[in-house]
Model the fold of this input.
Amino acid sequence: MRLRVTFSAALFAASLCAAPSNAATVKALPAPQGETVWYAEDHSLPMIAMSAAIPAGAAYDPRGKDGLATFAASLLDEGAGDLNSNAFHEALANKAIQLSVTPGRDDMIVSLVTLKENAPDAFRLLGMALSKPHFENEAVNRVRAQMIASIEQNDEEPGDVAAKYFWHAYFGNHPYAHDASGTPQTLNAINQRDLHAFARDHWVRGGLKIAVAGDVTPQQLTQLLDTAFGSLPMKTPPAIPWPGKVGAPGVHIVPMPVPQPTVIFALPGLMRSDKDFLAAYVANYIVGGGGFSSRLTDEVRVKRGLTYDISTSLEAFRRAGVLVGLVATRADAVNQTIAVTRQTLKDFAANGPTDKELQDAKTYLTGSYPLAFQSDAGIAGQLNSFQRIGLPIDYVANRNALMNAVTLADVKRAAARLFDPARMTIVVAGSPVEPKAPPPPSAPVVRPKTGAPARK
Amino acid sequence: MPIRARLGAALIACTALLPLRARADEPKAFQFALQNGMQVLVVPDHRAPVVTHMLWFKVGAVDDPPGISGLAHFFEHMMFRGTKQVPGDSFSTTIARNGGVDNAQTTHDSTVFYEQIAKDRLPLAMQLEADRMVNLDLSDSNVTTERNVVSEERRMRIDNNPQSLLGEQMSAALYLSHPYGRPVIGWMEEIQHIDKNAARDFYKHHYAPNNAILVLAGDITPDEARKDAQAAYGKVPARELAPRWDFAQPPRLGETRMTVVRPDVKVPLFARNYRVKSYTEAHPGEAEGLEVLAQLLGGDATGIFYRSLVVDKKLAVDAGASYDGLNRDSGEFDLYAEPRPGVSLDVLERAMDATLADFIRKPIADADFARAKTQLVAGATYRRDNQYAMASAYGQALSIGLTTDDVEEWPSRIRAVTADSVRKAAASLNRREAVTAYLEPFVPLPKPAPRPRAQPKPAGATP
Done:
């Protein structure tokens, strides 16, 4: 091959790990009330991006009120302080302030993007939204109707149907099990009082994690954050309980009339604090996280043409780790796809990666790190994701060195811990059938891959 | 169509003007061409040591031969299937091994391939792209497997999704014989017609440097870009291209109405699509008028449709409008609304038409008008925070025949839009030449619903 990589992996990684960004250095802002605040000051563009995590995710939904956290979050821009719903929307839109909320299982993640000149308004409006929400009847009823319509629409999509079933099956009675968007019944059971109580108890300063990037000095930022979060109650929500036994090994089928069933396959993952987490992260990249570089893509898509996309990701929640995989294929190829997936995971658990796979994974994972630091919005989002899983600020600079320190033995150990097909929970949304014609060859003729041993 | 090599000599002068720590109010792209006709555009952004490399080919689904819809999109997939020197899926694995990400996308008008990668690895990405521009391995086994992958992609994106199916039906009706009416991904039956010969011809006729626009956004100067582009692409010879057909856009003489009823629909939908002028067809200010109109009517929760149908009349859970004007041929203006439970699509449609008629009749409120423009202009500023979005904006514009000026002056052209031109744009939406569609659930005669066979029963599952 004419095209050679001219730098050694180690050299390449070392040259990048010191500076994922040319322009911005990440610093912490002293926060008197114990919040975590990181910022990256960069005056290239006249804008500011913030991502903040408030421990007000769906895991805090009271029993019978599934969807309350998401409902409250969806009402964040629907009226607060002296502005009704319409006036609040206009106040944001008149200044092109982008306020959005992502309700997760642990946290409610609030993103704010604003032109620098409008920053005082942006942070003041956010402060009002969090501390003086109206939850007025008109908005509550309207947003409830929208959420129910969206739930019904998701019921058309096999991916959403599989996911909804999966979380229930996997987490049983734990608060991570229920659907974060609730059900029509639970949403209809939620009233204004519930919403106010939830905001009072959960939109608070304890456990607040904030990341900011862009055209702002630390002095200005201190003031802006005070207008947004200063009047929230200084309390911490109760901890989410630990799950007991998780997983429901076996194949669960949720029949629906679609041409292409969707399959979710999942295994217990690792907690972010586990000493093998980074090794598991690398293992996941090699098996299913790395797009065209992954073994599952190679086996299921490239060699056999069974799917457009197969991927896995290692989810780190505050109280659980899960490895979740996703693939969609035609109804008569579901069984073959599951079999190939199982076999691929089994091989990997037994033998781990090759040395070359490990090196390739590390050069990708370290070399692509600066891609997350290209934009103000990207930096704020990336830093906040580190904060949410409890990483220290020096992780930003040390992350690539830690990744490079992962050894082959580490990944083999993590692989053996993770990829046990017998523990796999598999959910199929759709109606799989056996192929009619003679089945496609299970071991098709393929070109040998240079540098990698045969995998079968 | 040969691309004129222009602005080549201006490069040195441009470099001297380059603001080193850019704090200019307007972004600026630098443009030149290689001798083989490849156009190059550079959008410097030095905040992170990363470059977005985008290669736009002026070929898309409109160039699919009759009976083989989906070929352009299929061919985009084939570009990842390897060359003699970079076999199999080595293209993507090499990019990944060097810390980069890559992907591609096909539209009716163009096909774009991109990589985002550390600045010092850019020459490698360029060599890989230059290699697959001419040396692709189009063997039978590759074609067969990839056809299956594309069939799965079609099932995922279209066949599994009633809204997508409705959109496909509406486009087929709206454009009459123009190929904008054929789905980019292709009709399932025609995807199966793709073979090695069709792929080879397509490659030979459309993939060449004189049909490509290279956009480099990120940590790179025009000087560096010129040196790197010349080294990687300069030696790829220009080739005679197949001409692009100049398709007629037959006038629509009547309204098309359709009702799609399916058992997999849970939420009904009203949709109407109008053919309107695109940026390439419009008189100055006309497309911008449609852009402001779409923002005013349906941009967000302050939009007129949302306020009227969702908040005031409580007929819909959502309603909006959009304008798609970045096309070589026709543009499109779309309306949609999702009814609240119990509201018929017929009632919803009449309310939407009444709102539109009301909008045309009355003066536009100053606050609404100012807000719509502010949002559009700020969107252009926010776009500068994102290399990919910047590279896309320039690449898409150039690939359909617009210029860098059209991109850079867009915010001031939006500011210059008058209320009168917005009302004119609204009045030009002619229902009697549009496609109006209802998507409705199939409601069978009542019988006991089958219970899922799944087990064990998950806690709290919806019955």
